[in-house]
Amino acid sequence: MINYDGRGFKGKSQTENGEASGSTSFHYAQEGSIISGSYQGGEIMKGTLRGLFNSATIFSKKKRRQLFFHQEILTDGRIRLHEKWVGSDIEQTEGYSIIEEQESQLNPI
Question: What does each C-alpha distance from 48 to 34, 35, 61, 73 come to in angstroms?
Fold first, then answer.
């Protein structure tokens, strides 16, 4: 299991209805199977997330979304996350995004 504690990521790509961009930074903390984090930059003033290792709930701009991700280990050891997010009952949107670990944040797996 990969530990996300202290890792930083940047947005790489997303569906048209996404808010994150290449200017958005993500910073994670992990205790056991619980992940928490924050993100900001680009159109996002500040967002937070918390959840379990395989899924997380994201709170951003008064929106509540479920986030599911698949992790990929790149050849240089960094992590790429392929994310699918689904809006709440009120906002039935969904989309996809990819974020990649920043090289300066590289930790052993």
Answer: 14, 11, 10, 24
Long-range CB pairs of 79-87, under 8 A, 24+ apart, other chains included: 79/2, 79/7, 79/9, 80/12, 81/9, 85/18, 85/58, 87/63
> What phi and psi, each to the nearest 5 degrees, are found at residue 105?
-95, 5
pTM: 0.76
Cα of first residue to Cα of last residue in the chain, in angstroms, is 8
- Which amino acid, 82? H
Q: Rounded to whole angstroms, what are the CA distances from 20 to 31, 63, 95, 96, 108?
A: 25, 14, 11, 11, 26
Q: Looking at the DSSP assignment, which residues form a beta bridge with residue 63?
A: 60
- The string of DSSP codes covering 84-106 is EEEE-SS---EEEEEEEE-GGG-
The model's pLDDT over 1-51, given as tens digits with 9 standing for 90+, comes to: 788 899 999 988 777 776 777 788 999 999 988 888 898 988 888 888 888
